[in-house]
Amino acid sequence: MQDPAHEGPSADAVRNTVLDDLRVASMQMENKVASDSVIRPWLDRNGITPGSITSGR
Fold this sequence. Notes:
single chain, 2 helices, 72% helix, elongated
């Protein structure tokens, strides 16, 4: 029998970590979709480019 102190994380801990990672990835995807479909066109319509933000013009 193995020593419990040397076992890896429990199945629940692993599952919770995976679910947390999926949740974060899902939110990042939603933010990217919002950026591409809403924010980006608005910036383009208003003539704002990443270069104009950094150069202050």
